[in-house]
Amino acid sequence: MTDFVVSPPPVAAIPVGGGGKFPVRRVYCIGRNYAAHAVEMGGDPDREPPFFFQKNPNNLDASGEFPYPPHSGDVHHEVELAVALGSGGVNIPVDRALEHVWGYAPALDMTRRDLQNEAKRLARPWEISKAFERSGPIGLLHAAAKVGHLERGRIELTVNGEVRQQGDINQMIWKVPEMIAYLSEYFELAAGDVILSGTPAGVGPVSRGDRMEVRIEGLQGFTVKVV
Question: A single Gene Ontology molecular function, please (predicted)?
Fold first, then answer.
């Protein structure tokens, strides 16, 4: 017997390399965290204060398929490094931030670009363009205890074998420890939180039938089919 008046939803989780699942509590996403991408999106590549939006925990999806969403004709890929926290807190110092990282995974932040552009024009929130079903394809999560903390390494996305996005994670404007410290000033971070750490230049549209391949040096890559 429980006190719930309806059945609780299943816990959103990411598969872990070597076995097990990582439960997802919240998903924070940083915008324009690579200089070249900031430029291509019409922003300033200088080090301005970071800004974040959120996806829903169950948007992260490891099925290997991305269903093309309704009400959009311009859906873009954004390859990202996902950072999973094993602990949290408030006002975390930058020099202690990596102590809270459990692991890393390659991921995608799929975006209804046409709806995002309309939201920007009207100064409205982005959730309708970012937090839709299965909008966060993700690969296996790798424990930092095994792969170390990723401070550099190639990040790349291909579509049907053609390289669309490439860069190095050391090109992030706001590094992982800085993102954790900044977020902890505004939110109480906790185990299960995931941070999507921004995308390099080259974002672009996908179509049904496309095959996306995500690779981040030091992690196992993954493939997603647009269906």
Answer: metal ion binding
